[in-house]
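Practice problem: predict the structure.
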Amino acid sequence: MPKIKTFKKPSGNLHWYLLGFALLLVLLMLGIWEHQTKYGDIKVKSPEEAYQSRPPYIGDLGGVPVTIPHYFISSFITYDGDPSFWKGQFHTRPAQSERTHSSKMNSLTVIAHYPDMIGRKTLVLDEEWYDNLDSPQSKWIDIMLTSGEDYHKDGLQRLAEGKIEPSPYPYDGYTRMPDQVIGGKKMEVYIALGKVPETGEPYRETKHDIFIDRDEKTKKVRNYIECSYRNVPMPPCLHYFELLPKMAARATVSYPRQMLPEWQGIEAKSKALIYSFEQK
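Answer:
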């Protein structure tokens, strides 16, 4: 008579392991059921949904409460009283969730696409901005804002007048050139004409060309622009102007020299964008 194959009874230890595993599954299922009962179905956000759900940045910008969508901000915002980055204390700064519309901002950078002034509203736009950082055709501009304890209302005047004042060194300093019409408006123009004594290199290569727009009545500087003269694909410009009287703050816009003829539009649209962040 053929033998019938039998299975051995699990050992005592294996028996308890299987029983424990079954109990763990039961507890896990009960936990999921309880969570769904309380909070409904669990939904995993897509990358786009996660990007859109990021909270805005809030604070007081030059005396005006503002709410800035996250997709306009490129890096950290600093506030009055924050620990010093340079002293290695930056990691102890308060969380963004602790900020209020009374928290005084002193430094931030807004990124926008000129001339529509949209931010990186979607992941596609965020990728477009990143991919075009070094492109001469890029229309993305950086608007750096200074306010709070870092702001001085006569800072723009001191910056401009200090740069163009006569220098005691013959190769240094700036020479005023004939005024030029740039972007439909006459501007003062200053360039460095000397040469570096040690190398003979034109000093203009190491300095910037300066363009100044003044108030016709007061003669105070309204726009101060300095642009690199180097022969590179994207010679940078820094464009300074005040946000007074609306905000006690100053803007410094960065863009390629190719966009210099559009300086008036850049100023107007940058101001309008910053003012639009006001918390009504």
